[in-house]
Design a protein that fits this description.
alpha+beta, 11 helices, Helix Hairpins, Beta-Lactamase
Length: 489
Amino acid sequence: MSLRLRLTLWYSGILALTMLLFGIVLYFLLNFFLYDQIRQDVKKEAVISAGRIQTSYVLSKKGLTLDLELEGRDFISTNTFLQLYNVLLKSYNRSENLQNYNQTLPLSQAVIDKLQTEAGFFEKTKFLNQDILIYYLGIRDDKSNLIGVMQSAVPIGSYERTAVILRYTLIIWAILTIIVAASLGWFLARKALKPIERVIYAADQIGSGDDLEKRIYYDGPLDEIGRLTNTINGMLSRIQITYVELDEAYRAQRRFVSDASHELRTPLTTIRGNVDLLEKMWKQTSGTQTLATPDQVQMSLEAMHDIAGEAQRMSRLVNDLLALARADAGVIMEKSMVEFKPLVQEVARRAQLLEHTAEWQVGELDALEDAMVLGNRDYLQQLLFIFIENAFKYTPAGTVRLEAIRTESFIGIRISDTGIGMDKEDIPHIFDRFYRADLSRGVTTGTGLGLSIAKWIIDEHDGSVEVTTRKDEGSTFLIWLPANFPHAI
């Protein structure tokens, strides 16, 4: 059963119950007040008429005689019947309208017996083929003995018909109201739930395809359905962003694996070729007394040198991959307060021992005086060496310069070169893993992991890096790290 049908049935059921209770209460209230007025009038007429009864004693054995004075009232127009019954004489005294009908109001012995204990009561009965309401009032002597019965009656057929018409009118009106309300409720439920159908349709479209850009159109008020639609649209936006990020991460992972495989395959190929060469030379000289020629010795030395170099290269690559794997795994870096100036001086001294063809210059480092950095000493040294080695690599001729600056709460290490520089399109990607500008591919060696590791170290130290570069003119990297200056004035 659909939600729309359930809502319609619920609303119709509640309305039907409400109409039923309302109709019953209205019917009984109207019926009560209507009959209550009739009963009051009939009882009042009986009491007034009983007050006008004349009594006389007859010397005969018949006893007390009761006469009813009607004072010439027109009971035909009022349609009220009066009848006085003498219990002792068993005689009747009737109003003129009853005399015209030549009928007496019904009076049974049970009524007389009941009036022995009660002052009066009402009874609904049939008279002259119509419904009448009779009020019986007991007439008593000085000793409270019942000597007569005063009957006041009025036809209630018109009131009964009115009550029946009212009852059927309420029933028909309730049925029509329920039908109209159910139809209107079905229409309104369909209109109110239409956005939910759009939600279902959009979800089906997204579930059956890859179109995560689809959104649910809603132009209604910001009610529960409006907020639900906005929430689902927001959720779809977040899912789309997450999907795009996962897709980019998956492509980056595939590129990472591909590049890592490529970088590892080159030294492995070199090592394998040199091992095959050494094996071939060993087979040529083994089992004979012939010594290796100088050329063979030289080739062997070169092969072993190549093997050692490529193995060292592979070791660096594996270490870099291990560092990035630790970064991805969320390894917490151990930190302590590090005096930064001696660290930079040590890096500057050791940097001149690195292989380079450019001129190495160390500028002013006074800005680092008393600077304390919360960080890891080894990783901070690695960070500086990565940028210096990178500058040496891409500066075949010219200068590479190291200098320091400071602000109120940061220190900056500027490493600039006059090397080959980069295009501005390459800047957003230089910290991506295995990324190397097209200009440098095939010209300089490297894995493309150094700057990725450097960026991770900077992020772990809550720092930042600024890059300024121009093609064929050089690049400048400015590394900012938060610092304290406890002894500053």
